[in-house]
Amino acid sequence: MLESTHPLADTAARFVWWLPTLPLIGFLINGALSVYASATLGPADPSSDHGHEAHGHSANAHHQPHAADAGHDGHDTPIRHRFAAIASIVGPGVMVVAFGLALATFFAMRGVEMHSPYVNTLFSWLPVGALQVDAALQLDGLSMVMVLVITGIGMLIHLFSVGYMQDDPGYPRYFAYLNLFVFFMLLLVLGANYVVTFVGWEGVGLCSYLLIGFWFSEQANADAGKKAFIVNRIGDFGFMVAMFMLFAHLGTLDYTTIAANADQLPAGGIVVTAICLFLFLGCAGKSAQIPLFVWLPDAMAGPTPVSALIHAATMVTAGVFLVARSSMLFSIAPVASLTVALVGAVTALFAATIGLKQWDIKKVLAYSTVSQLGYMFIGVGVGAYTAGVFHLVTHAFFKALLFLGSGSVIYAMHRAYHATHHHGDDAQDMRNMGGLKKYMPATWALMWIATLAIAGVPPFSGFFSKDEILGAAFARAHGSTLADATLLGLPGSTVLYIVWVLGLASALLTAIYMTRMMLYTFHGPNRTGAANTPHLAEAPWIMTGPLVVLGVLSLVGGWLNLPAVITDLMPIGPSGTLEHWLEPVVGEATARVAGTGTHLSASTEEVLIGLAVAIAIAGIVIAKMRLKPEVLVSKSASLPSSGIQRVLEHKWFVDEAYDATIVKPTYAISKSVLWTGIDVGLIDTLLVNGSAALTRFLGWMGGQLQSGRVGTYAWMLVLGALLLLRAFARAS
Amino acid sequence: MLAESLTLSAALFTIGVIGVLTRRNAIIVFMCVELMLNAVNLSFVALSRLYGATGQVFVIFVMTVAAAEAAVGLAIIISIFRHKKSVNLQDINILRG
């Protein structure tokens, strides 16, 4: 088999199965601690439970005085979980080891020529006739990039969580869930076939649900978890249908075999298009694209590090990963690819408009994530798989930084509110912040790095990845297989130009809303109230440390894949590193989509880059001009918005529309048809009670035969004997 | 001889059946049952000429069982009479379903 001959077989890569196993061990230990603690710890004094932060930190299973984020109420000593020390070592510890192993594997991979993926088959899992599914892990350029992002950023976020969650009563439970998430996420990216990936896919959905509803004793948090879970089920339906179709038409679910046999499917045919569209339905659910994006903003109900890890850096990018992983299919389905790009572009713009008018700092970042995921789908949709993955990586850097930075801000706000017994205002509402630059200079500087990165200002990482996506969309409009296809009656090149324009427009909006967020949070007059300001301070080093690392990565992440046009102008580093790295995985598919399309000329690329930079800077300037310090007012002083602003503030009323068109009718049909009609009417009344009534009637009939009169019985006996005689007489 | 014996047996059996079906008095019904048993005994004996002594052995068995049955049956009838002051089968229907 491959293992014995593959150049990676004798390197650290043979321990690849330890990568998911390590977080699983962490999950088991932390989970055991949590279960043991809740089984043996009685409830503490319930009367001291007075947590009512907007963040929902009052939630805990033991009614201990809750002490998350800003810690305990008043000035009493924080009550930490009695196993907090062990959980703090085990939880981040397994991540450090896993990251070390990932690095060792990475360097081993750098040392060999990777022509085929290294498949590590652990055991035969589902040997059912023609369906042969192995529990197998696959190492190639793509999964290696994902593993490095997951373990690296995961490790930083675990460390951040040690500070952020230190006083939470559910501390070991939190780390158990977080470790379990990393386990499933690694399974997702390392799976060598769709089934293993699907197991990881479902597992991360479960962990997302558990962590969104981490403070489950508040109804809104539990509802948000449920919403995420249910919306994701719709997408998973698509994923499963795609798997069934793949098996029906190719007879296998292994990535390597599918890649080798994909040409058996007619290119551009209805089958491969349907498979890709169903796969994309799954991706739209997991990666929060229209029409299934509604769960992600609500997912901000979870702890902020969770938002950073799951709902920004890793899990939500699984859809992008899956499209890149299935590039062999998407590259022969131009209609599906155009759909992916168009949906991504529309989502990018749509979410960016909502981000313009959100007041909750995490909600801004949530819509920004939806928007950036749309960008990644533009990349993988137009067949620039490397660009999509590149933006995935840089986005993981700067969005994790933004979320963790906002976590630091929320932490500081909570602490200040706690110290002054001030509970009226929302600690996450940006209108209540302002001027935090003075109190949190490190967070301020780091978040500006991330903001410039996401806005696309050179030389920050987001500039390179975003520019590469937009450039690819522009370049594919001529000569590629996409340009020759038609989508909804529109020629492919028109669609790609629309995608490109939508991408540029959302780049402008991204710069505007991110600058707005920074201005509201860190600049202008302080609106926390005079009593609170002395208590505003930088978070402890365990929280700012990961921020610094992410800040450096956001700054230099672009060097992963410098465009040739820039390295030709200024020799700042090697160009296309990531592209060479991913070449064995997606190179063929990329070339197939690009078709005969020639590369853009250097001058065109320079114009495009100049345009992108101008748009980013214009966005920042517009936001700065519109939001003068005097218009930044606190929540209580701000006027209700009207017109289009009100529509944006209410998120285009999408939730309300879904409620009216899907949720309410579903409830109504469930109640009138499924419940009273089918369940009560058909099943309960007709089948259950009906069969009972029928049996009772038959019993009554039989009972009537037993008259108790010997005469009657004698008559029956004689009649029966006569009938028998007659029957015997006939038979003989 | 055989035909006459079997005819008599059939006649006796039919009388017994009609008695069981039509009479109300438990004692008479009981007697009719005995009549049916003995009608069968008669045909056993008659047919033993053709088929050997097995029929005669059976007759002994039937008489033994009939004797036992008479003892039990009469005891039940007496017991019912003590209880209901009647041996009319129309009045005995406490086992109605």
Account of the 3D structure:
- The complex is a heterodimer of chains A (732) and B (97).
- Chain A has 732 residues and is mainly α.
- Chain A has 27 helices and 4 strands.
- The N and C termini of chain A lie far apart (75 Å).
- Chain A has helices at 2-5, 18-40, 84-110, 141-164, 171-190, 194-212, 219-250, 255-261, 270-286, 295-298, 304-313, 318-325, 327-330, 334-355, 361-381, 385-419, 441-455, 461-475, 481-484, 492-522, 541-556, 564-569, 577-594, 602-626, 643-649, 654-705, 710-731; strands spanning 118-128, 131-139, 486-487, 490-491.
- Chain B is 80% helix and 0% strand.
- Chain B has 3 helices and no strands.
- Chain B has helices at residues 2-22, 26-51, 54-84.
- The radius of gyration of chain B is 16 Å and the shape is elongated.
Please give the CATH class of chain B: Mainly Alpha
> The biggest beta sheet of chain A, please?
2 strands, antiparallel
Approximately how much helix is present in the residues of chain A? 55-70%
User: Helix coverage percent of residues of chain B?
Assistant: over 70%
Structural class determined from secondary elements of chain A: mainly alpha
Mean pLDDT of chain A, to the nearest integer, reads 87
- The strand line-up of the biggest sheet of chain A is 1-2
Low-confidence stretches of chain A: 43-76
Structural class of the helix and strand makeup of chain B?
Answer: mainly alpha
The arrangement of helices and strands of chain B along the chain is: HHH
The beta-strand count of chain B equals 0
The shape of chain A, in one word, is globular
> What CATH architecture of chain B do you see?
Orthogonal Bundle
CATH structural fold name of chain B: Helix Hairpins
The overall number of domains of chain B is 1
Overall average pLDDT of chain B: 92
